[in-house]
Design brief:
homodimer; metal-binding (chains A, B); globular; alpha+beta; CRISPR-associated endoribonuclease Cas2 (chains A, B); magnesium (chains A, B); EC 3.1.-.- (chains A, B); hydrolase (chains A, B)
């Protein structure tokens, strides 16, 4: 299923930039960055659970936040992009 | 239905900060800010169309982007929040 992950990491707090890099890196293992703090990941339920736990360990819950939105499998008609940097179709064929 | 709106506005480009303020202000008219660049809005199809058009006019499509994710009506079980600043339930009663 498609899961949208959005995050706010407080880069003005101690170690914030490091946490931000780590959160982005972890999300990159599972999906595509579509905006600065927004990733679209194709995961099954077990992967999602594991990803939630790993990301939770990377953030400072007092100042940072993570949100997970389950968009299901029939998601092609649920997403609209306007403007710069159109995302890849994470499930489509890669054509160069 | 619940629509998630995420945006990247390039604040280093000319007029970027102004565009960012305007985009946030417009989104505030329809929903709740849950993260810095993430809003959850309860809109019907006509309101969504109108919001898309209005937001598109506020951004610079060469450097900024907007994404709209339709989460439908049965969205309570699709969203998980971890960490700081839990959002309001935009459809629930306001209890102070």
């Amino acid at each position: 299923m498609l899961v949208l992950i959005t995050y706010d990491v407080s880069t003005i707090s101690d170690g914030g930039k490091k946490r931000l890099r780590r959160v982005a890196k972890k999300c990159e293992d599972f999906g595509v960055r579509v905006q600065n703090s927004v990733f679209e990941c194709i995961v099954d339920a077990a992967q999602l659970k594991s990803l939630e736990i790993e990301l939770e360990e990377l953030i400072d819950p007092a100042v940072d936040s993570l949100r997970f939105y389950k968009l299901g499998n029939n998601h092609k008609y649920k997403v609209k992009h306007i403007g710069a940097k159109q995302s890849l179709d994470v499930e489509g064929p890669l054509i160069f």
